[in-house]
Design a protein that fits this description.
Strand content: 15-25%
Radius of gyration: 50 Å
Shape: rod-shaped
Largest sheet: 5 strands, antiparallel
Order of helices and strands: HHEEHEEHEEEEHHEEHE
Distance between the termini: 115 Å
Number of helices: 7
Length: 318
């Protein structure tokens, strides 16, 4: 009896039967039931795949057939385990990539910071060698700014001295007053002598609020800028120009020169104009670097006549 049941086992018959299966709009096959099971575990078909035995029978889902139900469950469990393993591997890979990126950012930041510190130390810190470049600074001289400073007033070594027009005299032409005719019966008039008297050149109006200085012509000028404060700012900030001279020395091997500077401080406390009294450095990268740094110097705003500062740097090799 059992042998007869084995001969008519429906599950075995389904595994031995030839099957057609659908993938989208295509009908593929035929395949045996054993081949369908292999595709099931390989993930090429699922329990929702519709199959049909060769013949007039219609298509049914694979999970509805008794011979394939157990295999569908096992294949689904296998697919879930493999999906979780793939997700875990992908998550670990992302974590490794993130850690590597963070390490690269940290190392890059440390490298950039070390470079900035080394660059700052080589330029600004006292006692640190600046590639054997010697920089000496003269004491600044502060004067009242001129209204104009034409370039032709510069005199450079090896160039002929240019003649400038003499300032016209402001004194009126001397005239000899006519002597009055002497009258025998008249008394001589008393004439007040003006010899030796000087015109009063002091500023008129209200009492000046700033310091009043007198130039060589006797003209009094009121200045409101604080020379001591300007000297302090220049002394504290002049080292910021070392970088400009160092870069110029890199552009010009063997660079050594005395570089006189003259700059005007505007009433807003910022450097308004700069002159470099050197024939080869009047314009160019060094001039641009110096002016850019000096515009950052924090002078105090003031009113009245503008201040001009003369400063000289002597550059050479140690």
């Amino acid at each position: 009896m059992s042998a007869a049941q084995d001969l008519h086992d429906p599950e075995r018959e389904q595994l031995d039967t030839q099957w057609l299966y659908r993938q989208g709009d295509l009908v593929l096959g035929p395949l045996t039931g054993h081949q369908l099971v292999e595709k099931l575990y390989a993930g090429q078909v699922t329990g929702k795949t519709e199959v049909s035995a060769t013949g007039p029978s219609g298509f049914r889902k694979l999970e509805e057939l008794d011979a394939f139900k157990l295999h569908v469950s096992k294949a689904a469990a296998k697919q879930r385990v493999e999906a979780e393993a793939r997700a875990l591997r992908a998550r670990r890979l992302r974590q490794k990539l993130f850690a590597a990126a963070m390490a690269a950012v940290v190392l890059g930041g440390l490298g950039a910071g070390a470079w900035q510190i080394a660059r700052y130390s080589s330029v600004y810190l006292p006692g640190v060698k600046r590639d054997e470049l010697s920089i000496e600074v003269s004491t600044p001289v502060i004067t009242v700014a001129k209204h104009s400073r034409p370039e032709e007033l510069f005199e450079y070594p090896g160039e002929p001295k240019q003649q400038t027009a003499e300032r016209p005299s402001t004194k009126p032409p001397e005239t000899t007053p006519d002597k009055p005719e002497a009258r025998p019966d008249s008394k001589p008039e008393k004439v007040a002598s003006a010899a030796g008297s000087k015109p009063d050149r002091r500023p008129t109006g209200s009492r000046p609020s700033g310091k009043v200085i007198t130039d060589s012509d006797g003209l009094a000028t009121e200045v409101n800028y604080d020379q001591a404060a300007i000297n302090r700012v220049v002394k504290q900030s002049q080292s910021t120009l070392y970088r400009c001279f160092k870069e110029e020395a890199e552009r010009r091997p063997g660079f050594a020169a005395k570089v006189p500077l003259e700059f005007t401080i505007g009433n807003d406390g910022r450097v308004a104009q700069l002159w470099v009294d050197h024939p080869q450095l009047k314009k160019g990268p060094l001039f641009d670097c110096l002016l850019g740094e000096m515009k950052k110097w924090p002078f105090k705003p003031y009113k009245g006549e503008r201040a001009t500062v003369n400063l000289a740097f002597t550059i050479g090799k140690k």
